[in-house]
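My main concern about presentation is that the manuscript never shows what a single data entry looks like. Each protein is reduced to its one-letter sequence and a matching series of backbone shape codes. For the editor and my fellow referees, an illustration may be useful. For illustration, here is how one protein appears when written out as sequence plus structure tokens:
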Amino acid sequence: MIDHCVSFVFTVLVWWLGTGVILKLCTLPRRTFRWSMLGASVMLAAAFYGLSHAARMTDTGGVYLSFISAIGVWGWIEMSFLMGFVTGPRITPCPNDAAGWRRFGLALATLLYHELMIVAAAAAIITLTWGLPNQTGTMAFLILAVMRASAKLNIFLGVPNLTDSLLPERLGYLKSYFRRRSFNLLFPLSIAGGVLGAARLAGQVFDSVGAEAVGAALLLTLLTLAMLEHFFMMMPIPDGALWFWAMPASAAKPIQRPAP
């Protein structure tokens, strides 16, 4: 039980502190971005090495190394997006008359390079860890990728709380592709999928021992946090409240959105 508590606290701290550090770096003057990305790229190389090395380890240390390495890869991708280095070929707001598949295509064009980067990173991680005993990092990255894709689609289709205050002004045009609605049909499917995954991981936590149980606990906590981010979309809670210390006072200026 102590191991499970440590896994929970560790994952929450990594999620909260890692997100906050990235947000803070993205609020610094633009001239600092190249240095931030240079430092992050060094950590990216270390993260890929860590994933490859940890995949051969079957002890608790290997599980933690694999997990934190996957988070490091994800952090690089998120930073490159929020700083505007890897986004998409379209960098203009959504036309007011865009609807249906045209609106979806325009929205996808704003994120295309970012999405391809996620796919490429997932393929690289799977290749590095294929057939090896410790798959914690691989599963962590896939959970992040799937749940983030789900969150993006839900915001595109429409949710009550758009949770867009964490977007920097340079990406403000993305908000025009969001839609505010009381409900969309994808949301319950997203939650149902998350619950099924969480139930399976919870079974592994209590049916396993040692490093395997620790790995399952890390993944369960990560998936639970991703589901919590989904619930933020349905509740009138400022998404930046947890990271107020990393956000500038002028963050999230409202912009005009097309009517649903």
Q: What stands out?
A: The first helix runs from residue 2 to 26.
